[in-house]
């Protein structure tokens, strides 16, 4: 209780100011109401629903009356060999995507930075940002059309002398690389924006001085420009790994995968959707979802801690 | 001397390679759409025979006629327009209303930190898909247009961005208004909103694109054919390859390939994004750095 005393005092003090200034402050509290209702109903009420991970949920009985079964769902989850497979797939896909994307984005930003004709640079940027704004339905449709066995890519490969059509999305060797590559293609332009912003803050005098001292173009990139974007790269990587479980990309996987590639392509989110909603195993899928949410929370908190320790970046 | 030499041969070779590479990369982002465009206008023999690359072969507009005749496609388009307009408006109202009070300090607004904490926690942690779905079902939103609008109405990350933007509005403006006797409603309306037009435009555009592109909610929350949004309908066509809607006159498919029909529908879905793209471009650099990078 000793520890809580300052907190209680602080709350009391806030309460007294709340009462005293309410005649002037009340609009602020009214403004908050609609969003708070939304938060309670669509964020906190679902969190209360997590209790069904410890129940055998029956739709007729609801959150409150379904029978408790303790940790049975978690036992089922751990005994299921496909759980570990899916867990591994999620981490492999997410990590490959993050690393590939940020590595290529830095390089693309450096290349764009070397273009001196502003019109040319702007035009390239306009083109490479576009795919970011297309949904994975549209992109998935395009890929299924172009990468199919009769699609234009295999037609061209055939003309180039490849005999067997490559079923990019239908076999376990090519599925994940195709996911990573198409994700890269969709996001790389967009991902350069932060690096290009970092590049503008490099002191031009530094570059001039280096040039006078005889540093060539490549040396300037290596010793001045690259170190200039490094802090941004570390920041982005840290945030991305904080959001690792989102990075696997539910939208993309769900629209591109098929049973033939479940062993490499099935991820936590697609499994939760398939087993939970389509298979109506609500409690088991909620248990898996809870594990995902808790691990995700730990990751993001660690990454935000790291970021606030080493930079002056603050999210809120 | 030295500098002149270094700007010389090697540097120029690099420039040529660099420009060429960037051009190829840029074109690779638009070529799939051009291929789809060519495919959508080509006739059956050319499309199924794999003769189409970037130019229509024996062009015919028939696929577009079929798409625009199909009631279910037009209806889905209309549902998407409604959800985008109503949904984005509601989003912006909620975002503005909560981020303005949250931009105050704990000293100005008692209990501000508790409210902020509940927003941040909900951003970092959630109940997961199944409880979320069960709650929406319990609230009676399944199979209504509201299922496409209400659950998306409070994007928490955008709340944080907007709050950070409001925080950078000079305090003096607000203090002067308070001395002049303005209420917080007036301060929000006449001081904060006019200053924040770029940020509001950014979040509105991104909200609208998000609504237009959303498909998962339409897939799990809507069963009624007349309420399916466009992206969800497109999924049944291009991902599930379900052509039933267009099979009432099977002889139509003598004239065009199902691949052309899919391409045409994909392109019609993309058109609204292409229309707002120039505006998006004007704002999205500010959007991504908005509020996120302080100091």
From TrEMBL, chain A:
PROSITE patterns, A to Z: ABC_TM1 (PS50928)
Single GO cellular component term: plasma membrane
GO biological process, one term: transmembrane transport
InterPro entries, alphabetized: MetI-like (IPR000515), MetI-like_sf (IPR035906), UgpAE/MalFG_permease (IPR050809)
Highest taxon, organism lineage: Bacteria
Primary residence: membrane
Any one Pfam family match given in the protein's UniProt record, by short name: BPD_transp_1
Keyword tags: Cell membrane, Membrane, Transmembrane, Transmembrane helix, Transport
Protein localization: Cell membrane
Similarity annotation: Belongs to the binding-protein-dependent transport system permease family.
Protein name (record): Sugar ABC transporter permease
Lineage: Bacteria, Bacillati, Chloroflexota, Caldilineae, Caldilineales
From TrEMBL, chain B:
Record Pfam families: BPD_transp_1
CDD domains named in the record: TM_PBP2
Bilayer disposition of the protein: Multi-pass membrane protein
Amino-acid biosynthesis recorded as keyword: no
GO cellular component: plasma membrane
Main location (coarse class): membrane
Keywords assigned: Cell membrane, Membrane, Transmembrane, Transmembrane helix, Transport
PROSITE patterns: ABC_TM1 (PS50928), PROKAR_LIPOPROTEIN (PS51257)
Domain of life: Bacteria
GO biological process, one term: transmembrane transport
InterPro entries (alphabetical): MetI-like, MetI-like_sf
Subcellular location: Cell membrane
Keyword Transmembrane helix: yes
Transmembrane segments: 21-41, 76-102, 114-133, 145-166, 187-209, 263-280
Coiled-coil region: none
Family, as annotated: Belongs to the binding-protein-dependent transport system permease family.
PANTHER family assigned: ABC TRANSPORTER PERMEASE PROTEIN MG189-RELATED-RELATED, POLYGALACTURONAN_RHAMNOGALACTURONAN TRANSPORT SYSTEM PERMEASE PROTEIN YTCP
Protein name, as recorded: Carbohydrate ABC transporter permease
Source organism per UniProt: Caldilineaceae bacterium SB0661_bin_32
């Amino acid at each position: 209780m000793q520890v809580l005393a300052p907190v209680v005092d602080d709350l009391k003090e806030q309460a007294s100011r709340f009462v005293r200034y309410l005649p002037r402050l009340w609009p602020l509290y009214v403004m908050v109401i609609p969003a708070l209702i939304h938060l309670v109903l669509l964020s906190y009420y679902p969190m209360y629903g997590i209790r069904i991970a410890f129940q055998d949920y029956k739709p007729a009985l609801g959150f409150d009356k379904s029978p408790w079964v303790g940790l049975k769902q978690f036992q089922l989850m751990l005994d299921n060999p496909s759980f570990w497979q899916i867990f591994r797939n999620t981490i492999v896909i997410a990590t490959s995507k993050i690393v590939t994307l940020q590595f290529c984005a830095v390089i693309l930003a450096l290349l764009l930075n070397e273009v001196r004709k502003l019109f040319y640079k702007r035009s390239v940027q306009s083109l490479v940002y576009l795919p970011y704004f297309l949904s994975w339905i549209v992109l998935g449709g395009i890929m299924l059309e172009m990468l199919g066995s009769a699609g234009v890519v295999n037609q061209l490969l055939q003309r180039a002398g490849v005999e067997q059509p490559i079923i990019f999305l239908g076999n376990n060797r090519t599925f994940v690389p195709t996911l990573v590559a198409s994700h890269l293609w969709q996001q790389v332009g967009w991902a350069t924006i932060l690096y290009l912003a970092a590049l503008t803050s490099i002191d031009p005098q530094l570059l001039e001085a280096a040039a006078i001292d005889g540093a060539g173009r490549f040396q300037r990139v290596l010793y001045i420009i690259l170190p200039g974007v490094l802090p941004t790269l570390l920041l982005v990587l840290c945030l991305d790994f904080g959001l690792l479980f989102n990075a696997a990309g539910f939208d993309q996987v769900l629209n591109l995968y098929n049973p033939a590639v479940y062993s490499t392509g099935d991820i936590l989110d697609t499994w939760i959707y398939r087993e939970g909603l389509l298979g109506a195993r609500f409690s088991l899928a909620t248990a898996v979802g809870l594990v995902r949410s808790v691990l995700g929370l730990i990751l993001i908190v660690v990454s935000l801690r790291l970021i606030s320790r080493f930079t002056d970046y603050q999210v809120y | 001397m030295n500098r002149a030499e270094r700007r010389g041969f090697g540097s120029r070779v690099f420039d040529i390679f660099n420009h060429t590479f960037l051009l190829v990369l840029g074109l690779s982002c638009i070529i799939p759409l051009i291929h789809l465009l060519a495919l959508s206008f080509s006739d059956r023999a050319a499309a199924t025979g794999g003769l189409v690359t970037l130019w229509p072969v024996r062009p015919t507009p028939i696929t577009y006629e079929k798409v625009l005749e199909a009631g279910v496609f037009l209806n889905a388009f209309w549902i998407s327009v409604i959800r985008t307009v109503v949904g984005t408006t509601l989003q912006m109202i909620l975002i503005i209303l909560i981020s303005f009070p949250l931009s105050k300090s704990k000293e100005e607004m008692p209990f501000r930190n508790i409210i902020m904490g509940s927003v941040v926690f909900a951003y970092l942690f959630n109940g997961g898909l199944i409880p979320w779905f069960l709650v929406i079902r319990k609230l009676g939103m399944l199979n209504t247009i509201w299922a496409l609008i209400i659950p998306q109405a409070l994007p928490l990350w955008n709340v944080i961005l907007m709050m950070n933007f409001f925080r950078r509005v000079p305090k003096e403006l607000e203090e002067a208004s308070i001395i002049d006797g303005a209420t917080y409603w007036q301060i929000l309306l006449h001081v904060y909103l006019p200053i924040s037009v770029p940020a509001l435009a950014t979040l509105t555009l991104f909200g609208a694109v998000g609504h237009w592109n959303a498909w998962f909610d339409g897939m799990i929350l809507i069963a009624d054919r007349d309420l399916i949004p466009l992206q969800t309908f497109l999924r049944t066509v291009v991902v599930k390859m379900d052509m039933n809607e267009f099979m009432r006159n099977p002889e139509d498919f003598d004239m065009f390939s199902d691949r052309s029909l899919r391409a045409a529908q994909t392109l019609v879905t993309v058109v609204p994004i292409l229309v707002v793209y120039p505006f998006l471009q004007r704002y999205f650099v500010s959007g991504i750095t908005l509020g996120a990078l302080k100091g």
